[in-house]
Write a structure and sequence with these properties.
alpha+beta, GNAT_dom, GNAT family N-acetyltransferase, single chain, Acyl_CoA_acyltransferase, 147 residues, Aminopeptidase, 6 strands, 33% helix
Length: 147
C-alpha cells in the first residue's frame, strides 16, 4: 500500500509538490508506518479502506473516514484515492471509490489544484467545488463536496 501511495504521488504530483518530498528516501517507510497504524490501531476503526489488485499486483488504494473539517455537513470524507498511472482510465478509481463510499453517501474530499484529470473524475461522481481552498506543503487544494 505504501508503494502504491508513494508511486502515485510521484506520478501525479511531480511539478506540483517539491521534489525533495517526493524523492525522500524515507518516504515509503513513513507511509508504511502510516498504513500500519491506519489498519491496526483501534482509534482508526471508523475508517474504510479498499485495495485493488490487477494480475496479483496492488494497483490502487482508497480510504474514507468521518469528516475532519470543522464545517462538515457531509457524513464521510475521502482521504485517500491513489491508482498507479498505468491504470488511469481503467475503472479502477471508480471501483475503489464505490467500495469505500456508496453513491448515496454525502461526502467531501480535497484535491490538488491544478489537477484537471482528478477534478473531472470527481465531478463525474457528483462532487462539486464548494469554494474552499488551502495550501498544504506548498500544494494548493480545493474542497469538493457531494450532497
Amino acid at each position: 500500500m505504501a508503494r502504491v501511495h508513494v508511486t502515485s504521488w510521484q506520478q501525479t504530483y511531480r511539478g506540483l509538490m517539491r521534489d525533495e518530498v517526493l524523492d525522500d528516501p524515507d518516504f515509503v517507510t513513513r507511509r508504511e508506518a502510516m498504513w500500519r497504524r491506519s489498519l491496526t490501531d483501534p482509534q482508526y476503526a471508523d475508517r474504510q479502506t479498499a485495495v485493488l489488485e490487477h494480475d496479483g499486483d496492488l494497483v490502487g488504494i482508497a480510504m474514507t473516514a468521518p469528516p475532519g473539517d470543522d464545517d462538515a455537513t457531509w457524513s464521510r470524507q475521502l482521504y485517500v484515492l491513489y491508482v498507479l498511472a498505468e491504470h488511469h482510465g481503467s475503472g479502477a478509481a471508480r471501483s475503489l471509490v464505490e467500495a469505500v463510499l456508496p453513491p448515496d453517501t454525502s461526502a467531501a474530499l480535497w484535491v490538488a489544484d491544478p489537477n484537471p484529470r482528478a477534478q473531472a473524475f470527481y465531478a463525474k461522481l457528483g462532487f462539486r467545488p464548494d469554494g474552499t481552498d488551502l495550501v498544504d506543503d506548498g500544494v494548493r487544494e480545493i474542497r469538493m463536496v457531494r450532497s
